[in-house]
Amino acid sequence: MEDIDITKFISGNHKTYEKVYQLLRDNIFIYFVTRVDNRETALDLTAEVFLRVYKFKNNFENKSSLKTWIFSIAQHLLIDFYRKNAREKEIFTTVESEILEAAPEVQSSQSQEDLLILEQANSAELNQILANLTPRYKNFLILKYLNNLNFEEISDLLNIKLETCHVLHHRALQAARKIISH
Amino acid sequence: MNNLEQLKQNLILTKAETKQLDRKLQLLIKKETTPLWINFFKYFTGSAFFAIIIFIGLFFGRNLGEKSTITPVSAAEIIKNSISSLQQLKDNKGIVKMTSDIKYKNDPNFNFQEIQTTEWLNNSENKSVAEIRITGKDAVINQPDGTIVTRHSNNAIIFDYYNGVIHDIEQIYYNPGEILTAESLGKLRLQNTTAAYTISDYPDLPKYNKLEQITKFYSEVMLPSNQLQLVSLEKQYQISFESVSIVRGITINKQFIQEIPITYRYELLIDKATQLPISETINSLNADYPDQITINYNFETVTLSTTEAAALFEPVLREYRENLTNPFTITTGETKISGTLSIENYGETYYKAFITTTSGEKYALISNLLTTDYLFTEIPTLQARFYQGKTVTVSGKLGKLQRAIIEPVILVNSISLDSKIN
To answer: Could you tell me which of B250, B222, B390 has the C-alpha nearest to residue B310?
Structure first.
C-alpha cells in the first residue's frame, strides 16, 4: 500500500483505484467472511465497500492511512448490516476506561508467548478460539492476524488509544490461550 | 506455513469468487456512473416505448413482414467498408478510438449511441481483437484479463484482426454476464446476424496520401482478393484493378429488381512528386455500358486522399448502377462542375451530398435514396463528409455524370445541366 499515489487515487485515476482494489480485495473479504453468515454475503459487502471507495474517494483526507480508511468503510457497512439483521454490535463498542482500569501491565514478552500459542494452534483449535472468543476479542485478533493491520491502524479504525490497543491484544491472546487450555 | 496462515488461505477469495467480485464491482460502478436520466430513459424505452413498438408492430404487421423479406445488407460488410482503415490506425497509434452512430434498421428500440474501440487485445496466438465499447442501451465491459462481459443486453460487435488484416466483423449474440475470450470468438462468430446498420459518423478517418499507404490500403484491406496493378509512368504512378460489382437487389414500388453484375476497371493516378492522387477513372467493361467517368481533383484548394476520393467515386458508380435499372434519356458531351461540397441530413435515414458552385448553383451529388437501399448508399455519403466544405471538381461524360449529380435522377426521364436545386 505504501507505493499508492494518494493524489492520483483521489483524482480518480483508474489504474490507482484498480491497484488499491487488487491489494485489499482479499483482506476486506476476510474481514467480512469471518463476521457474516456466508461467503456470498461477504462478497456483496466487499463489492459494496469498493463501490463506496470509488464513489467517495474524494472524501479521503489522508488523516489516517488509506488502508485504515477503507477498513473503516467496511466497518460501517458491517454495522449497517448487523443493524438490518438485528445482530450484536458489541465488537465495535470498546469501552476504553473499563479496559484500562482493569489492565495489568502488558509485557511484550508475555504477548509474544501468547502469540506462539495462537500460531502453533491447529486448525481445529483456531476454529474453537474464533467461535468462543467474545466478539470484541475476536474482532481484534482478526484485524491483527488475518487482516494484518498494525496497532496504529487498529487504533485508528476502532478509534481507541494505542495503549488500549495493546491491552486488548494482550487480553485477546490470553483469552485464546484459556480456550485452548480448557 | 502455520495454521494461522493456513486459515487465512482458506478464507481468501477463490478464483471464481474473485472473478465474480470483479464483475459485480464493475457493474456497480458502471451503474453508479450512469446519469439518472439515462436510467430513466432505459426504463422508458424498456417498457412504455417498447409497448408502443409492439403495438405498431401488430398494427402494421403486414408491412413489417414485407420488410423482413428484403435482403439485408450484412452488418459486417457495411462496417467493414466504412472503417476499413482501422488497420492503419492500429499501426500508427496502437489504440483506436472511434465514435459512430449505429442504428438497427428494423428496430427503433435498438440504438447504439456510441461505439468506441479502446484497446487491442492480444493473445498468445498472435490474434488480436479490437474491443468495441457500446454505450447506450447495451454495454460491453472490458475485463483486465482481456475477456469481455456483457452488461445488459445481448449485442456486441467485435472487430477481429488476424495477422493485421480485418477478416471478420460480426454482430454476435450472447447472454448477459457471459464471458467472451479472444479464443471463444471463433465459435460465437458463427451466429452472425442479418441485421442492417448504418453508420452516420466517422470522424477519425485517416489520410492516405503516401503511395505505400495507398497500395497497402487497397491490397490488404479494401481488396484483399483482387489483383492490384501498380505501373510506374513518367510522372505518375497508376494503380488499377478490375472488379465485378453487383448491383444489389432493390425494391421499387414493391417490385424486386434482381442483381446485375458489372465489370469495371478502376484507375487511380498518383503524382510521383507529391504522391497525391490526381484523378480516378471508372470504366465499365460491359459492352452495353461503355461509359467512362473521370474524377479530377483540384489540389490547389483541397488535398484528397484515396479514401476521400472514394466518396466521389462511389456515389457516381452507384448512380451508374441504379440507372441501369432505371433507363432514361442519355445526353452526351463533356462537362465539369466545380464547387463546395456539403452534406445535408434528410430525415433519420439518409443524407445527400451537394456541390454548390461559386455562382450559387446547387447540384445533388447523390440522388434520392431508396429506403430499402439506404444502407448501401449511406457509406459513400459519409465518406463524402470528409471533404465537405472543400472545393471539388467533378468532370466526365455528360450522360452519366449528370445522372450522378443532378436530382432527382431516378424519377425523371430527361435532365439537363440547367436543373438546379434551391
So the answer is: B222
- Sort out which chain A residues have CB atoms less than 8 A from B2's CB and list them: 119-120
pLDDT in tens, chain B (422 residues): 567 777 777 777 887 788 778 877 777 777 666 655 454 444 444 444 433 333 333 333 322 322 222 222 333 333 333 333 333 333 333 333 333 333 332 333 333 333 333 333 333 333 334 433 333 333 333 333 333 333 333 333 444 333 332 333 333 333 333 333 333 333 332 222 222 222 222 222 233 333 444 444 444 434 434 455 667 778 877 767 666 554 433 333 333 344 445 566 767 777 666 656 677 666 666 544 444 444 444 333 333 444 444 444 444 444 444 443 333 223 334 455 666 766 555 444 444 556 676 776 666 543 333 222 222 233 333 334 434 455 555 543 333 333 333 322 221 212 222 222 22
Give chain A positions within 8 Å (CB) of B6: 123
Q: Would you say residue A121 lies in a domain?
A: yes
How far A172 CA sits from the closest chain B CA (Å)?
A: 15
Which domain covers residue A139, as residue numbers? Answer: 92-181
Chain A residues inside the 8 Å CB shell of B17: 29, 39, 43
Q: Which of B4, B17, B24 sits opposite A118 (nearest CB)?
A: B4
Closest CA to B383 of B215, B242, B204, B218: B204
Q: How far is CA B79 from CA B106, B169, B208, B379, B383, in A?
A: 17, 7, 19, 9, 13
A78 and A113 housed in the same domain: no
Q: Report the residue of chain B nearest A40, measured CA to CA.
A: B17
Q: Do B11 and A29 touch (CB under 8 A)?
A: yes
Identity of the residue in B2, B18, B32 whose CB atom sits nearest the CB atom of A51: B32
The reported pTM is 0.37
Our count of domains for chain A comes to 2
Same domain, A126 and A145: yes
Please report residues of B whose CB lies closer than 8 A to that of A50.
Answer: 25
Q: Are A155 and A162 in contact (CB under 8 A)?
A: yes
Grid cell of B146 as nine digits: 482481456
Whether residues A104 and A175 share a domain: the answer is yes
CB contact under 8 Å between B25 and A50, yes or no, is yes
DSSP A147: S
Q: Do A121 and B20 touch (CB under 8 A)?
A: no
Residue B134: left if φ>0, alpha if ψ -120 to 50, beta else—which one?
Answer: beta
How far apart are the C-alpha atoms of A165 and B233, rounded to whole Å? 88
Given the cut 0.95, state whether the ipTM is greater than it: no
User: A97 and A177 in one domain?
Assistant: yes
Residues A112, A177 within the same domain: yes
